[in-house]
Amino acid sequence: MNLENELCEEEFEKMLQDFINKEFEETNNDHDSDDNQDDADTHEEDDEPQKDILPMRNRKETGRQASYTLSVCVLEDCDKSCFCSGPVTVHFDIQGDDLPDTDRFKCFIYTDTYYPMCSSYKSSEVYRNGMELSYEIPCSHIWLPGKYILLVRDKDEPLVRINFQLDEHLHTEFSEPMLVEDLSIEDVLTTVLQGDEHWQYLSVRPGTIQMRQKMLERMQLRCYNDLREALGSGFIRSNRNLLICTRNKDLTEYDLHHFRIDFSHSLSLEYVDCSMLYDPACNNPYEHLNDTLLSISSDDIVCLTNLSALLSTGGKVIVRRLVEKVKDTTIRKSLWLCGTRQEILTLFDQFPSLKEFYTDDSWVEHGPYSAFDMIQAFFQMMQDENLTPSLAVMDQVSRAIIEGYRQCRLVSWSLSDLRHIITDSIRPRYLKRAMEDIDIEVLPIVSPEDVDMSLFTGSADTLEDCLGELNKMVGLEQVKQGIATLANNTRFFLERRRRGLPTSGNVAYHAIFTGNPGTGKTTVARMLGRIYHSLGLLSRGEVIAADRTRLVGRYIGETEENMKAVLEEARGNVLFIDEAYNLYDGSGDRKDFGARVIDSLLTVLSQPDPDMMVIFAGYEKEMDAMLNTNPGLTGRFPYKYRFSDYSPEQLMEIALRLLERDAYLLTDEASAVLKDSIAQTYKSRTTNFGNARWVEQFVRNGIIPAMADRLAATPSDDYQHIEASDIRRAYEKFNPKATELKPRQKVGFSA
Question: How do beta strands 242-245 and 334-339 pair?
Answer without folding.
Answer: parallel
